[in-house]
Amino acid sequence: MDAATFFIQTMNGIQYGLLLFLVASGLTLIFGIMGVINIAHGSFYMIGAYLAWSLMGWVGNFWIGLVAGVMVALVLGLLLEWLFIRFLYDRDHLQQVLVTYGLILIFSELRSMIWGDDVHSVPIPELLNGSIQITENLAYPIYRLWLSGVCIVIAVLMFLGIQHTRLGMMIRAGESDREMTKALGINIGLIYRFIFALGITLAAFSGMISAPISSVFPGMGSQVLIVSFVVVVIGGLGSIKGAMIAALSVGLIDTFGKVIHLDIFGINIFPEMSGMSIFALMALILTLRPQGLFGREH
Amino acid sequence: MSISNRREFMAGASALAGLSFLSLTGCNKTNDAIRVGFMLPYTGTYAKLGAAIENGFRLALTELGDKPYGKSIDFYTVDDESNPAKSTDYANKIMTRDNVDVVIGTVHSGVAMGMIKVAKETGTLVIIPNAGANAATGSMCAPNVFRTSFSNWQPTHPLGKVMVENGHKKSVFVTWKYGAGEEALASFREGFEAEGGEVIKELFVPFPNVEFQAILTEIAALKPDAVACFFAGGGAVKFVKDYAAAGLKSSIPLYGSGFLTEGVLEAQGADAEGITTTLHYADGLQNPKNLSFREAYREAYNEEADVYAVQGYDAGLLLIKALEETSGDLSQKTQAIKAMEGAEIDSPRGVWTMSKSHNPIQNFYTLRVENGINKVIGTAWEGLEDPGVGCGV
Predict the structure, then answer these.
(1) Is the pLDDT assigned to residue B21 strictly greater than 70?
(2) What's the whole-model pTM score?
(3) What was the ipTM of the complex prediction?
(4) Rounded to an integer, what distance in angstroms lies between the CA atom of residue B375 and that of residue B248?
(5) Of A66, A256, B17, B227, which one has the greatest count of Cβ atoms within 10 A?
(6) Chain A residue nearest residue B211, CA to CA
(7) What SS3 class is residue A280?
(8) How many CB atoms lie within 10 A of CB B370?
(9) What mean pLDDT value characterizes chain A?
(10) Nearest Cβ partner of B238 from A2, A12, A215?
(11) Burial of residue B80, with CB atoms counted within 10 A of its CB: 0-12 exposed, 13-18 middle, 19 or more buried
(12) What CATH number belongs to B31-150+289-358?
């Protein structure tokens, strides 16, 4: 692998990692701060993509479709928290998994009824439709670069929001001691509703902005769910910084695992076993640091 | 695991619901009915394929009239959910409980393998209308198991010949790391090397991951004459779009098995233009049988037939051969099997016959995407026969 290819592959890895961060960030919010295991997270990613496809097709404009989609996701998140999730805070993880698994089934059936089972694609918006020629035969789509930029902006906003705002302070207080925070007169129920809706919206938003470079298809949610959990677990529950570092590591390992040839003791590790590489990384981290890279010990 | 418990509970509940329904209709096997079972995906990613197969099959049977040989045709249905873990349960349900004469199924290869295991015990006739696992008519083959679709060995085998004819000798092959992908790769390599081509690198993506950027960068660095691939559904749309977005489309031509562009051309749009594939069917085949089939299908279901509908239709035609030979009595299994083995099916894809291991010996066509349709540009291989490796029938 020459230097130019290595550089491009590194860029691919970072770009993929940033996208993973965006998908996983909503999960780490809900899982880390609220303690709710939401295995329906992938469904919201899928719903986001289908929303993007139908709304953007309907209004004919990417940006209006995006804003409308975010609104729908936000309302959906608030509604779901009110209907189901708020009853789960004091229950154990098994019941949370059962309820959110039920949501997966419901959303998958609803998706089938509303949008059908076809594969669709969303056109890249005019403004970002183009590519930069980086080698004689390889071009890099501008949309992917824009996507990375969006992911970085959202990461910074999330970090600042949680560390340096009043709301962030309340969220962190609720995370450490829910009852105490309530006693201080903070409406923790409302804050949790907002956090859940935000997490859902982040998942749907990543589905929406990924739609133009991905395709929109029924099974897309389960795909991102597993890798999101890997990112969250490696990074440590609830840690935005951890999720970012984990997502970038997973992105880079996944990228290089697909193209590097590596034999150990005559056994082909890469690319033969590249599908396992991110799980091997997770196993390694959990052995050394069971709480994840930036997780607090419980 | 709580998830599987819940799923099993639901499967159990639906089975109960099915039983109570049956007790009303009566489930004693009588000689005045031909019992046909569909074991197909009616939910999930492959739901559309299941529906197309059943539609095609029923269309073929309409030519028998209402009461062939004085018998009614009773249909039994089970949704296999494309879930290999439940395949033996579902196969038992339809073969033992419903006691059907013949099962039409299925789409997913993993599910088909489970089905075949059960069919080997019950002896029930099975017609596979899609699942391509080589083993189904290879190492796992059985006298009572037939296939009307293709083996995974078939669609990519003629591809190498087409590529060499177009002057591409050095190629990269890309696919998902899973059974069908690896079988497609092995047969591509065989066909391509036989014509003097060389596979300079195999690139895999974990199934069903669709992040291709690393692969595309590697392809650009390797600069092969052409790229061959095996993808279907959502992955096929994404690969084709990413390939074009990376600017590779103009410098390195893309080839694939026909499933790369089958049923997903609309989503792929202009990015699919010029892609060359090989498949055993094309919408645009101009033989009279295909034209009349497509018209009948359109009339009956108000939609366009696809390759899956054709495979289902041919499963129907194959069953008709068995019914003709046995005057509608499928309990005469030896005669039924003999009729199906010797069948010459006048299919919309062209006439095909059964190989020794019960897989179609069929033409493969070269297709090229032009103006948003898969245009037939020639016959890549006349009467391609799967070697049926490991089959002792």
Answers:
(1) no
(2) 0.84
(3) 0.81
(4) 22
(5) B227
(6) A16
(7) helix
(8) 13
(9) 89
(10) A215
(11) buried
(12) 3.40.50.2300
Chain A contacts in chain B segment 274-333 (CB below 8 A): none
Q: Does B42 touch chain A (CB under 8 A)?
A: no
Domain boundaries, chain A: 3-288
Residue bearing the bigger pLDDT, A254 or B226: B226
Equal CATH topology for B31-150+289-358 and B154-279+364-384: yes
Q: Which residues contact A37 (CB under 8 A, 6 or more apart)?
A: A31, A93, A96, A97, A100
Cα within 13 Å of Cα(B346), Cβ side: 9
User: What number is the average pLDDT over the span B231-240?
Assistant: 90
| Closest Cβ–Cβ partner in A109, A131, A258 for B214 | A258
* Structural domain spans, chain B: 31-150+289-358, 154-279+364-384
Who among A117, A123, A275 is closest to B45 (CB)? A117
Q: Which CATH class is domain A3-288?
A: mainly alpha
How is B336-359 classified by DSSP, letter by letter?
Answer: HHHHHHT-EEEETTEEEEE-TTS-
Residue A217 has its nearest CB partner, among B203, B233, B246, at B233
For residue B203, pLDDT beyond 50: yes
CA-to-CA distance for A255 and B122, rounded, in angstroms? Answer: 47
Q: Pairing relation of β-strands A139-141 and A262-264?
A: unpaired
- Quick check: helix, strand or coil at residue B104? strand
Size of interface A-B (CB pairs under 8 A): 128
Q: What is the mean pLDDT of residues A227-238?
A: 89
d(CA A59, nearest CA chain B) in Å: 18
pLDDT tens-place string over residues A2-39: 888 899 999 999 999 999 999 999 998 888 788 888 99
Main-chain phi, psi angles of A99, to 5 degrees: -65, -45
Q: Mutate one of B2, B211, B308 to test the A interface: name it (highest A CB count within 10 A).
A: B211
The per-residue pLDDT for range A63-88, each reduced to its tens digit, is 999 999 999 999 999 999 999 999 99
Residues 6+ apart with CB under 8 A from B63: B320
β pairing state of B373-384 and B360-370 = antiparallel
Cα–Cα distance for residue pair A242/A246, rounded to 1 Å: 6
On chain A, the residues whose CB falls within 8 A of the CB of B252 are 137
Share of chain B above pLDDT 70, in %: 92
C-alpha distances out from residue A267 to B201, B250, B355, Å = 18, 37, 38
B238 vs chain A: nearest CA distance in angstroms? 5
* Rounded distance between C-alpha atoms, residue B87 and residue B40, angstroms: 10
**Which residues, 6+ apart, have CB-to-CB distance to B256 below 8 Å?**
B159, B228, B229, B230, B231, B236, B275, B277
Nearest Cα of chain A lies from the Cα of B389 at a distance, in angstroms, of 25
Which of B327, B341, B346, B337 has the alpha carbon at shortest distance from B64?
B327
More confident position, B191 or A272 = B191
**DSSP strand pairing (B72-79 vs B360-370):** unpaired
CATH superfamily of B154-279+364-384: Response regulator (3.40.50.2300)
